[in-house]
Specification:
- By secondary structure, this protein is mainly alpha-helical.
- It has a single domain, classed as Winged helix-like DNA-binding domain superfamily/Winged helix DNA-binding domain (Arc Repressor Mutant, subunit A, Orthogonal Bundle), CATH 1.10.10.10.
- The protein contains seven helices and two strands.
- It has a two-stranded antiparallel sheet.
- Strand 1 and strand 2 form a beta hairpin.
- The C terminus is likely disordered.
Length: about 150
C-alpha cells in the first residue's frame, strides 16, 4: 500500500512537532527543515488541526504544536484520517463492479495495515532510530537538515 504525499507530509509535520517537545513551531520552520512548500504544508496542517492532531495558535507568539503528547497519537490514526475511507482500487469501470471477490480482501488488507500502524505512536517512531530525534531537532530554524545516510 502506498500513502499519498499529503499523508507523508502530515506524518513529517507530526514527527517534527513531536521532536520539539511542546514548543510552538511555525509552518515556515517545518517547510524549511524538510525542503517542502509552505503553501502545501499549510493545507496539511489545516487538515491536522481539523482532525484534532495539531493545535494552532495565531498571533505573534503563535504557531502549531501537537494537540496531545506524542505517546498518545498513533501513526495509524494520522494515516487513516488523512487517507480517508477511499477504496484501494477504482471499481467504477470494471466489469466485475459489485461482484468482485477481490474487493473484500483488499479492504481487509487495508484494515490490517492501519491496525498495525495504530500500534505505533509518534513517540515510538521518534525513538525507533537513534538518529531521528537529533536530525529533527537540528533541522530547526535554519532548515539545514543533515543529508540522509544511505544505510
Amino acid at each position: 500500500m502506498r500513502l499519498s504525499k499529503f499523508t507523508d507530509y502530515s506524518l513529517r509535520v507530526c514527527l517534527y512537532l513531536g521532536a520539539h517537545g511542546g514548543r510552538r513551531v511555525s509552518i515556515a520552520e517545518i517547510a524549511r527543515a524538510h525542503g517542502l512548500s509552505q503553501s502545501n504544508l499549510m493545507k496539511v496542517v489545516t487538515q491536522l488541526v481539523d482532525g484534532g492532531f495539531v493545535k494552532s495558535t495565531r498571533g505573534r507568539s503563535g504557531g502549531i504544536e501537537l494537540a496531545s503528547p506524542p505517546r498518545a497519537i498513533t501513526v495509524g490514526a494520522i494515516a487513516r484520517y488523512m487517507e480517508g475511507d477511499s477504496a484501494m482500487v477504482d471499481c467504477a469501470t470494471c466489469i466485475l463492479h459489485g461482484k468482485c471477490g477481490l474487493v473484500p480482501a483488499l479492504k481487509r488488507a487495508k484494515m490490517a495495515f492501519y491496525g498495525y500502524l495504530e500500534q505505533i505512536s509518534l513517540a515510538d517512531a521518534l525513538a525507533a532510530n537513534p538518529a531521528t530525534l537529533g536530525i529533527l531537532q537540528d533541522a530547526a530554524a535554519d532548515g539545514t537538515a543533515p543529508p540522509l545516510d544511505a544505510t
